[in-house]
Amino acid sequence: MISIEIKPYLLNKKHVFRIAGGARTNTPVLLVKLKYESFVGYGEASMPPLYGETVETAQAFIKSFDFTKFTSPLEFATIIKHLDKHAPGNTAAKAAIDIALHDLLGKMMKVPLYQYFNLEKKELKTSKTIGIDSAEIIEKRVEEAANFHYLKIKLGGDNDAEIIKAVRNVSDKPLFIDANQGWTNKEEALDKIAWLKEENVVFIEQPMPKKAFADMEWLVSRSTLPLIGDEGIQRLEDVKMASNFYHGINIKLMKSTGLHEAFAMANLAQSLNLKIMLGCMSETSCAIAAAAHLGAMADWIDLDGNLGVTNDPYQGHELINGCIHLNDNHGIGLINPNWDNIETYV
Known about the structure:
346 residues, Enolase-like, domain 1
């Protein structure tokens, strides 16, 4: 029989994190441990307020899900199907169980998850995210990220030009731009894209509001840079029509309900010739380690959510000079997780 334990936790950020939609200093998460016989699997639900889940809703969802009807994690497909039908929404809570189940399966099969998915083991050049801030602080953050190959810059406020100028004062690295739905006029958005192309920008993530379908359809046909859907692309169903509004998609485990659907989304995106970005929320090394196993499917990696926190309770894959190096530990790849010593923070 599968048993489950949960621990509420509060991830504290090293710096105030500002995007076009607001600012915060921490992220509530729910840590999950599944046990089956001698095997233990770990998962995580990260719940930034933007997406509507809380520690309370995640706990209620997980406590109301009946694991006793399943005899083994090997009934994975059935468990995942029941999990998704158990209640609408709750994507991060579902992701926590999905990740823990995959961790269990990898350990039972004695393989790291990239092998479970029949993927290559690749060196993953992740971007380092710089939030909206004053020019002085942005310059400092960029200098601190000198070892990374790409910088992800948050725009969408009223000081986009000031931010880019500050970045370029101290770095000429290629940039990923995330507007977080902050541009609301399509003509102005197109002008900004033309400007940013000259600033060594690789792509623009979610330039306009996710429901501005007509504007995004207009913009995607004219943009000289790839446009990547984030808030506008949540789950597998969204990928089917994504090419009408975007050139690519940002897959995040907390939106997709976990690795199972994220893998399906990536396969569908590839079949539709959509670019793939692999992203994250503010997360512990648990969810980051899990997502990294899908890295071989992605054109761009943005898995730095564990790097901007002060109290990561786990250790996962090694980061060297801005590159994630997958280890060959069975399952998701956590190194000596010590569940009993993790203090509840919420």
